[in-house]
């Protein structure tokens, strides 16, 4: 059947299909952004690990690496009712259904603190990790703070979703907290994406993207990031299950054991 658009315009859908990403302004009201921020800042302030998902250390143990004090939180929807509620936020799910052309399934959530002095994130593609088949995943990247080049905002490579998933090579540890990096295809170039709190950036799982280091003196660049797949998904990486419908019902998906572009099955628990 033909999927009629629920909330997006034809122009917005065409932009996403052409460039691989789309920014929707003000999806989350100020009070919702503050609720997310407060929850995760309180979680970090407690300094207690959540086994398997969050492992902060104190300043002495961090040894000057601010991201060891403020590590990303993986899969918070698995232990936080608040995070689960925002993972399946109705407006986000409506937009995703327009982008997929079918019902969307929620696969993963993350929270990034990105304090001043934090390293950036080398260029990568999300579906290298999620291994969604058929098709690809889509990210919904919600800005909790204003995000720009100074405080470690994102940059993306428009139209890179039209190419293949690459096998990464080692990144520069002086500027990236992740180990892998992919190349910008010939003829394409990265562009920065500036966001305000409550804005959501949607992008295709094959889009090459990364982030700048946070060189600001006092500005966090916090973000709540979720990944989704279409309802026709038959396989995905084993770390992204179960997936959930917009009503919160779990959906069983087969493990994707394909060796991928590197020739070996990827085994780390999360996209970078």
UniProtKB/TrEMBL annotation:
It holds the Pfam family PhyH. Keywords: Dioxygenase, Iron, Metal-binding, Oxidoreductase. The keyword Metal-binding applies. InterPro entries: Phytyl_CoA_dOase-like (IPR008775). It comes from the Bacteria. GO terms for molecular function: dioxygenase activity. This is Phytanoyl-CoA dioxygenase family protein.
């Amino acid at each position: 059947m033909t999927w009629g658009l629920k909330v997006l315009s034809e122009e917005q859908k065409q932009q996403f299909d052409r460039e691989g990403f789309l920014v929707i302004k003000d999806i989350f009201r100020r009070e919702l952004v503050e609720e997310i921020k407060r929850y995760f800042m309180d979680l970090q302030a407690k300094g207690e690990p959540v086994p398997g998902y969050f492992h902060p250390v104190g300043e002495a143990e961090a040894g000057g690496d601010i991201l060891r004090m403020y590590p990303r939180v993986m899969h918070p929807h698995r232990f936080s009712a608040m995070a689960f509620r925002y993972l399946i936020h109705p407006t986000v799910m409506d937009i995703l259904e327009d982008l997929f052309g079918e019902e969307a399934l929620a696969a993963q959530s993350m929270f990034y603190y990105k304090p001043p002095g934090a390293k950036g994130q080398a260029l990568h593609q999300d579906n290298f990790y999620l291994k969604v088949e058929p098709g690809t995943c889509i990210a919904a990247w919600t800005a909790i703070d204003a995000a720009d080049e100074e405080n470690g905002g994102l940059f993306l490579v428009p139209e890179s979703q039209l190419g293949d998933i690459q096998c990464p090579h080692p990144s520069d540890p002086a500027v990236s907290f992740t180990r892998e990096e992919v190349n910008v295809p010939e003829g394409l170039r990265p562009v920065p994406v500036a966001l305000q709190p409550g804005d959501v950036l949607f992008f295709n799982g094959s889009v090459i993207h990364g982030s700048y280091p946070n060189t600001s003196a006092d500005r966090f660049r916090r973000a709540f990031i979720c990944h989704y797949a279409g309802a026709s998904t038959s396989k995905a990486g084993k770390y992204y299950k179960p997936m959930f419908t917009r009503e919160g019902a779990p959906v069983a998906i087969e493990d994707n054991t394909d060796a991928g572009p590197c020739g070996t099955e990827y085994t780390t628990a999360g996209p970078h």
